Amino acid sequence: MKRKNNAFFRWFFGEEDTLIGKVEMKAQPEYEQKEGEIRELMEERAQLREQIYDVRDNTKLKLFHKMYNIAAVIFCITLISILLVNVSWLPHYGDGDNPVNNEVSARYIESGLQETGAVNIVTGMILDYRAFDTFGESNVLFIATVTVLILMRLDKEKKAPAKPGVEVYSKAEDDMTMTIAEAQANDRIYEPKNDAILQKVAGFLVPIIFIFGIYVVLNGHLSPGGGFSGGAIIGAGLILYLNAFGFEKTERFFTEKTYKWICFVALTFYCLAKSYSFFTGANHLESGIPLGTPGAIVSSGLILPLNICVGMVVACTMYAFYALFRKGGF
Amino acid sequence: MNIFAYILMGFLIVCAISVTFSKKLLNSILIFMSYSLIMSIIWMLLESPDLAITEAAVGAGVTSVLFFVTLKKINAMMGEDEQNEKEE
After folding, report:
1. CA triplet A192, A195, A196: central angle to 5 degrees?
2. Domain range list for chain A
3. Which of A120, A229, A325 is the closest to B57 by Cβ?
4. Complex ipTM > 0.85
5. Which of A54, A269, A311, B45 is deepest in the core (most CB within 10 A)?
6. Cβ of B65 and A326 within 8 Å?
7. By residue range, what is the domain housing residue B54?
8. In this predicted structure, what is the pLDDT of residue A171?
9. What pTM, to 2 d.p., does this model score?
10. Is the pLDDT of residue A163 over 60?
């Protein structure tokens, strides 16, 4: 396939970055001050202060400073008391006439089971009535990982020194930035490598944690829990496994590519499934997806697959956060 | 049951205050972790087990682990040997 050879396409295929050397931060010239100058400046400032404010004899200023502290305390106390008074005006906890108990929640509680097929009303609410909110939440998690990736990512190799003639602030000169190999070496300073106790305990615990997490995800529509909690449990198990056995073991099954594909597939499936459901099932049209018998594991329509999607995204995100914070890549 | 809830609330307040007043960052994180655990028990008492599971997994587990890693990154977590060297 032939493609056009203009600047945009060259940028798109990664051959040339037209912005290099134009938008980078330039290093500031270092500001130097001699000791004599500093002393002069300090004397000048003290003189000015005495001339303007007349610190020794000015009783007004002293009073002002005292009053300032007292006023600050009074302001804080007033603010706290106003807020506390407001709290006392809030409706009483657990009262039947609270504004929370309106027709919306009554509808959810009364006909949630027939309409969504989920025994757990909470899951029926967040993954059926308000599935779009949950979709936004999972996207937020993904975006957060991308942001952390931008901030914490390290280079595979040291950057080459900048071209002569182009003064660019290059990060490679700083001591703070490391390459991935250096970060990996630095990673184990405080920890013993291949700790026997930790490895034995992790060998017992990690499978149990994984199975519990998968149970919580799969039973989201039957028992407490769901995609987010189960995903967090699986992510915590992954972190424990990583701590015990190191990055070499986890990289056999979880790399950046795995993360990318899992998040992409899960979020796309969620988006397509839910948009389909909005087209057909909203406004009480027939959705065509059988709800099944409430209480069975394969029931309640789309909630089970959506739960699995959310769980996968959350588990991968937790692990990715940890790996990025620790090593700057995974 | 009511007394148990009040005891937990008291612990919660004590934890919240001592997080801000403890001088070592490591201790603050540990206290924050126990805060999350107590909070998850309170969620159980308030009959919302969904939130309790999430609070225990995210609040007490993942968040504090991330805090630990951050402490290590900024070199604020000193081993005992280094501390002894400093005192000498």
Report:
1. 155
2. 36-89, 119-327
3. A229
4. no
5. A311
6. no
7. 2-32+39-87
8. 45
9. 0.70
10. no
